[in-house]
Amino acid sequence: MQSRIYFDHSATTPLDPRVLAAMGPFLGGAFGNPSSLHYEGRLAREAVETARAQVAALIGAEPDEIIFTASGTEADNLALIGAVRASGKPGHVVTSAIEHAAILETCRFLAASGTKITHLPVDGDGIVGPEGLLRALQSNATVVSIMAASNVVGTLQPIEELAHLTKLHGVLFHTDAVQAAGKIPLDVNCLNVDLLSLSAHKLHGPKGIGALYVRKGVCLSPIVFGGGQERGLRSATENVAGIVGFGAAAAIAGEELASEAARLAGFRELIAAELTRTLPNSYLFGHPSKRLPGHLSFGFRGQEREVGKLLLALDRAGVAVSAGSACSAHHSGEPSGVLLAMGYDSERARGLLRVSLGRFNTQQEVDRFLEILPRAVAALNGGARQSLPLQSVEVSAVAPA
Ligand code: PLP
Predict the structure, then answer these.
(1) Is CB count within 10 Å lower at the N or C end of the chain?
(2) Helices (H) and strands (E) in the chain — how many of each?
(3) Distances (CA, A) of 343 to 125, 210, 283, 288, 296
(4) How far apart, in whole angstroms, are the C-alpha atoms of residue 296 and residue 308?
(5) Ligand 1 centre and the CA of 181: distance in Å?
(6) 40 burial type by CB count under 10 A (0-12 exposed, 13-18 middle, 19+ buried)
(7) Does the structure show a pLDDT above 50 at 187?
(8) How far is the CA of 29 from the centre of ligand 1 (A)?
(9) pLDDT in tens, 372-399
(10) Residue 328's pLDDT band (boundaries 50, 70, 90)?
(11) If DSSP states are collapsed to H, E and C, what string results for 231-280?
(12) CA atoms of 324 and 307, how far apart (whole Å)
């Protein structure tokens, strides 16, 4: 049996063995609590501070501007709820219509207690324009939050420009960089952002550990209360092994960023070109060039409702891809809110297949995928079932999505 092909790195990434090796001691003998004053505690503290410096270096921040959290989701919650609470007013959050649920649901929570929420529109490529932002900034915003890269369509936002406009109005700027970090260069000072969310498991680090960059001087209220760890912004005994893994993952991602971005963008372009050639009814979502290096999402004209079946057929053929974001996978069949916001009709917005590549993907895997995909699409049309030379694929056995 051939090994499986994992093309769903926007959902999560496999742990890099070098990261696992760095974490090893902290899952075993080095079990101290970083707040303890004895040797075991000091050892853990030193490891946490080394990792803090590594994570900070990935985004051009100072180590003491990094607050470790339990996830990217928690970092997003802390950024928005923390900024609104620190303002002492119900406040006004300006965000985009295509954010991750970690932002959209936090906004919904804040709205229930009186915070005004403005969702900025995006264009057909998924890009937030400056006009809507300028209009929203006229009515006393507390914080603007725009994601650096879309988890669904891979489009990159003009963060530097949007942050610049926001700062001219004296308003805080947050970016959810969970998908972008480690894949494109990010420097908090060049971008001029105040708050930036990260998550280790998107860059070949462990799950359950995230971070929020908080620019010096920015005032946030905590959302978790207790022993006052992480400068009082995130109480709880630190997840030392997770933090160490995050640090190692950030250091590796930083070192390999340029070469990996070029390699993955090459695969992406090859897949896009081959799709256009072999599947004339396919079309790409998102901006053609302002996008994450290893990220493609596409639809199939006339087969929008079959994407769920296609995903399962590919899975049976040994290829893991996704239909939209992992978080929405349980609602598949529903039109994607992101695609609706980008102006697609509800039919087109149902049919998104996402391919997201990562560090351990190879040219051979890309070649094999390019053989498998057109056959899987053809099989959906009722032809070519037997032409799938796959891990016992039986497309007809797949329940309709
Ligand atoms: N923000 C974006 C853009 C994401 O893609 C994700 C995860 O998919 C998150 C936030 C949440 O991160 P985590 O899984 O660490 O909670």
Answers:
(1) N
(2) 11, 12
(3) 9, 32, 15, 16, 18
(4) 17
(5) 11
(6) middle
(7) yes
(8) 31
(9) 999 998 888 765 443 444 443 332 222 2
(10) low
(11) HHCCCCCCCHHHHHHHHHHHHHHHHHHHHHHHHHHHHHHHHHHHHHHHCC
(12) 10
What's the CA-to-centroid distance between 189 and ligand 1, angstroms? Answer: 23
Pocket perturbation via mutation, ligand 1, pick of 55, 100, 207, 209 by most ligand atoms within 8 A of CB: 100
pTM for the model stands at: 0.94
Separation between Cα atoms, residue 93 and residue 209, nearest integer Å: 25
Residue 191 to residue 212: CA distance in whole angstroms: 15
* Strand (E) or helix (H) holding 47: helix 39-58
Contact 342, 124 (CB under 8 A): yes
Q: What is the spatial distance between Cα 358 and Cα 6, in angstroms, rounded to a whole number?
A: 8
d(CA 185, CA 58): 8
pLDDT in tens, 265-295: 999 999 999 998 999 899 999 999 999 999 9
Beta bridge partner(s), residue 128: 122
Over the stretch 139-182, which tens digit does the pLDDT of each residue have? 899 999 999 999 999 999 999 999 999 999 999 999 999 999 99
Nearest to 342 by CA among 120, 148, 173: 120
Return the amino acid letter for 268. Answer: R
- Specify whether the CB–CB gap between 95 and 142 falls below 8 A: no
Separation CA 285–CA 153 (nearest Å): 6
Structure tokens, 192:
């001029």
Closest CA to 73 of 212, 245, 238, 222: 212
Q: At what angle do helices 101-112 and 72-87 cross, to 10 degrees?
A: 30
Query: Residue 89 carries which side chain, given as an amino acid letter?
Result: K
Structure tokens at 349: 């917005």
What percent of the chain has pLDDT above 70?
Answer: 92
Instruction: From 146, 137, 141, select the one nearest 100 (Cα to Cα).
Output: 146
Ligand 1 neighbours, Cβ below 6 Å, are: 71-73, 76, 100, 102, 147, 151, 176, 178-179, 199, 210
Structural domains of the chain in order of their starting residue, each with its CATH number: 2-13+257-394 (3.90.1150.10), 17-252 (3.40.640.10)
3-state secondary structure of 359: coil
* Nearest-angstrom CA–CA distance, 320 and 347: 24
